[in-house]
Amino acid sequence: MEFEKTFDNAALDYDASRPAYPEELYADILRYKAVGSDSRILEIGMGTGKAAAPFLAAGCIFTGIEPGGNLAALASERFGKFDNFSCLNLTLQDYDCPEGSYDLIYAATAFHWIPEEYGYKRVFELLKSGGAFARFAYHAGPDRGRETLAEQIQALYAKYMPPKNRDRLPSKTGSEEKVPCRETKPAGKHREFSEQDAEALSVIPLKYGFVQTRYSLYHVTKDFTAEEYMALLRTYPDHMALDEHCRKKLFEGIHSAILQNGGTITVYYTMDLELARKP
Known about the structure:
alpha/beta, seven-stranded mixed sheet, disordered N terminus
């Protein structure tokens, strides 16, 4: 199974279920690297365009690359009215572009799909001197206000989805990559994403020639009905990779637990931003 295709197969669920990034995050990026009408920006793995609007509003020349055809189509439909927008149905590996083309490159909960050594080197090549790379993502935590619900869901994960399934996912190269805080799911026992995790990510670009690295954390919540939460789970590759019996039991159990506890679940998201500059 090509795990990244899960997003494309559930494009509408992805667009409706995934959270929006806070305005403070975009403001921090644009303070770090100012952009204008003559700036060129590249988004890696743009999905349906949930992170594109603030950069398009700045009037920059915007290019998004997205390997999922359905996701790319939704992004093109959403932003096709902008003359400064283009979306290419490609992976970063397949994107043919001259070196030193971009003032700002960013990836929103997408860069973990790309092998580290290739990804950072490729971004470095594509950036102009003085250009910036922004890597940001969200990590979901359990419902802190409904302890019984969180415990019931944790028990379901322990039964139908052992921790090893949540901790390991194939990378684009086909090899397994250990990423304990990649996109932490809102239920099940796990270590929540921390400032130490963000700090560790922020120093990685230094190995590939970047300078002036920094990081920030943001916290938001999002409420889901039982049905809305099922749509969210359908966008997680490791959930959809479960065998049919376990996936059915897990989803049914979570759906029932939410209904038994008032019909709503609140996901506590931690969002991290890492910034780096090409000298």
